[in-house]
Amino acid sequence: MGTTVTSELENNRIQEAITLNNMSEQNRNNMQSQNVSHVGAYSSLYTISQIVGLLLIFSVFYWIINFRGGFGFTEAKIIFNWHPLLMTIGFIYLFANSILHYRTFRTLKKRDLKNHHAIIHGCVIVLVLLAGWASFASHIYSNPPIPNFYSLHSWMGIVTISMFLSQFVSGFVSFLFPGIAVQYKEAIMPYHIFFGVFNFILAIATSVLGFGEKLIFVLEQEYKNYPKEGMFVNFLGLLFIFYGGLVVFMVTKPEFKREPKPEDGVLLTGALE
Q1: How far is Cα 212 from Cα 197, in angstroms, rounded to an integer?
Q2: Three-state secondary structure readout of the chain
Q3: How distant, in Å, are the alpha carbons of 100, 210, 226 from that of 263?
Q4: Residue 204 and residue 209: Cα distance in Å, rounded?
Q5: How many angstroms separate the CA atoms of 261 and 153, rounded?
Q6: In whole angstroms, what is the distance from residue 25 CA to residue 30 CA?
Q7: Whole-prediction pTM value?
Q8: How many CA atoms lie within 13 A of 219 on its CB side?
Q9: Residue 45 gets which letter from DSSP?
Q10: Local structure of residue 176 (DSSP, 8 states)
Q11: What gap in Å lies between CA 257 and CA 273, rounded to an integer?
């Protein structure tokens, strides 16, 4: 009798273990299937974002060539035309790809992704400085000279650039500089993520405001008569807003986050990955 009971208990334990193992295996399969689905959805949205981002650059180039006289260094108004194009390439397209980089190239090592992130940000800084020079030079060489920093667009531009530079310096010191304590990285990461996304949103808003300001400045009373240039740039502004919303959605959706890898070691895993 005792042997029979013991045998039944042992069989029950074995059956329970098999059931739990099957459930665990099923859960793993479900998680893997969900991950594949999320990666596929992200890839589709990323492709759309690249098309829209490149369309933004081409549209700004088309606007300048066909409505604003093209590019050059001989006239003040032509010098200024470098400003919107370089800002769009740097502060919109490259900035977006930088904050999406962790999720886009999720199979790369964490250290490599961090280095790429910093390099892209460095390229953004170079383009932004060149764009700022184009704006300053065009104002100085205008006849009569145009004052600087009197508009809301310029004020927001200063805030956006200052925030970007501070993010770059703090991010480099916190996450790339050797010897920084893990506790400090953990404390600074949420703020780095929040202000990075906020900085991108501010860049989109500043750009849209700048296009509107430019139209009012060059078209004056003609703007209210629905000129081709005015309508084209209005739709361009809406495209900027759509692009910004799409990028923010992709970078803040938890399901699109990069999964940590064993080789990451002690490197932090942030919400932007």
Answers
A1: 23
A2: CHHHHHHHHHHHHHHHHHHHHHHHHHHHHHHHHHHHHHHHHHHHHHHHHHHHHHHHHHHHHHHHHHHCCCCCCCCHHHHHCHHHHHHHHHHHHHHHHHHHHHHHCCCCCHHHHHHHHHHHHHHHHHHHHHHHHHHHHHHHHCCCCCCCCCCHHHHHHHHHHHHHHHHHHHHHHHHCCCCCCHHHHHHHHHHHHHHHHHHHHHHHHHHHHHHHHHHHHHHHHHHHHCCHHHHHHHHHHHHHHHHHHHHHHHHHCHHHCCCCCHHHCCCCCCCCC
A3: 21, 44, 58
A4: 9
A5: 43
A6: 9
A7: 0.84
A8: 20
A9: H
A10: T
A11: 5
- Tokens matching residue 20: 């739990």
Tens of each residue's pLDDT in the chain, 273 residues:
545 545 554 555 556 555 545 545 555 544 455 567 889 999 999 999 999 999 999 999 999 999 999 999 999 999 999 999 999 999 999 999 999 999 999 989 988 999 999 999 999 999 999 999 999 999 999 999 999 999 999 999 999 999 999 999 999 888 887 777 778 788 888 899 999 999 999 999 999 999 999 999 999 999 999 999 999 999 999 999 999 999 999 999 999 998 877 666 544 445 455
Structure token pair of residue 130: 């060149």
Taking a C-beta distance cutoff of 8 angstroms, is the pair 244, 198 a contact? no
Q: How many residues does the chain have?
A: 273
- Residue 187, token pair as written in the block: 């404390």
